[in-house]
Amino acid sequence: MTQIEHEDLTAELRVVRGLGFIRLRAAAVPVLTAAAGLAGFEASGPRAVEDLVRSAVGRLGGGDLQRAAELTFGTPVGMRGDPAPVRRRRAADVYTVTVERFRHSHERTIISQVADAIQVLSAEAATGSAASLGQSSGPPSPLAEVRDELERVLRRVAGMAHLDSDDTYRFGRYGPFALPFGAARSLIVVDLGAVEELRDVDLIVSSENTYFEPARVFTTTLSGQLRNAAASRDASGMIIRDTIAEELAAWVQRHARPGNPVEPGVVAATSPGELARRGVRRILHAAVAVPRRGSNGYDVPETGVVRAIQRCFELARAERASEPSVDSLSIPLFGAGDGGLDAEASFSRLWPALQMELRDDPTWTVHLTTWTVAETAVVLRHLAQSVSDPA
Question: Which domain holds residue 35?
Fold first, then answer.
């Protein structure tokens, strides 16, 4: 084996994390074993894999990422025999998040980063650039690691282009990617497919018109999907509570003038209805689509998108004040549907505003939601470019 694939490494690293070092003889991890050989570790079998993982964890550059990785795999003195649940709980404490939140987000990043470090170790040994066998001449560039991972995922998504022209349903989650925003990093995830498939995202942002009239439940728009997913039904499937429509109408009664539009960028919050079963705490409805008179189309002014992003983060911080575990929100490509914008134009409107918010507060995990494979590829390409030339 001369090439070590990232996906194969992450799959086997999850096995190592679950079993722990002392039970590695019970595992079949041929890719990690081969990587240890390529990296020049002289031990054999489980010991070589353990040495490889320890060396890779030591290359993560310090900070919370490396500390959490050490706890995840049990590399500190006295932790080698700790069971997986204990290691996961202690690693979650590094980021002060729940175990479930850590498992769904931070742990995936850690395993991906360790896999990247193993690839670099193997490549260095193969080219003779390592100072000595099994040792690093210095930590790899974190930005280069993230960019390389984004480009790998982008190539995979680009190979799915045919799915946009047939009836194959698709849902995919790519990331999280630890992207730089100022001096810190935030986790960015790209989600492809129906928004009702999302799980364990605290706050979901929806794109609405400036009249706060949600789309009908049978439409494929983001507004319609969320309205449908949040509604309560009886045993026959009939809607008995149209949560989003009812709560938006109540919001307009309290804060606006019924029958008249609000300013673009205004955001109204509603409860998640049945989406609470998927871990959603709140839905934030951003009024960014301005109906055109005499047509079925909409305009999506850039200033409205910027204000909406700002207001969504204000409401997110308020939600966190009452529940400190809140740390994630999803944001759509505003206007990429009935708004008539292509994915490039939509992303160019939201990304600068999102960058500003995450530079001020990088503690959020942001899910960028897309509907088509082509949209997903556009987002991944821009994320890779942002790492190459960070703002």
Answer: 6-138
CB 228 within 8 A of CB 308: no
Tell me if residue 52 falls in helix, strand or coil: helix
Q: What is the pLDDT of residues 15-61, one digit of tens each?
A: 899 888 988 877 778 889 888 888 888 777 788 899 999 999 988 88
Structure tokens at 321: 């004040």
SS3 sequence, 291-314?
A: ECCCCCCEECCHHHHHHHHHHHHH
Residue 28 backbone phi and psi in degrees, to 5: -105, 105
Cα(14)–Cα(205) distance, integer angstroms: 32
Do 351 and 322 share a structural domain? yes
Q: pLDDT tens-digit profile of 164-207?
A: 665 555 678 888 888 888 777 888 989 988 887 788 789 999 99
Q: Coil, strand or helix: which one is 325?
A: coil
Q: Which long-range contacts (CB under 8 A, 24 or more apart) does 150-157 make?
A: 150/177, 150/380, 150/383, 150/384, 150/387, 151/384, 152/6, 153/380, 154/377, 154/380, 154/381, 154/384, 157/192, 157/373, 157/376, 157/377, 157/380
1 in any annotated domain: no
State which amino acid sits at residue 268: A
The DSSP bridge pattern shows strands 232-233 and 184-192 to be: unpaired
Global pTM reads: 0.65
Whether residues 205 and 339 fall in one domain: yes
In-domain check, residue 143: no
H/E element, 189 = strand 184-192
Boundary of a domain, candidates 138, 171, 189: 138
Domain closes at, from 84, 111, 138: 138
Number of structural domains in the chain = 2
Q: What is the C-alpha to C-alpha distance for residues 348 and 330, in angstroms, rounded to an integer?
A: 17
Whether 297 and 340 have beta carbons less than 8 Å apart is answered as yes
Q: How far apart are CA 110 and CA 175, in angstroms?
A: 11
For 82, 101, 197, 361, the CA distances from 202, given in Å and listed in that order, are: 31, 10, 14, 17
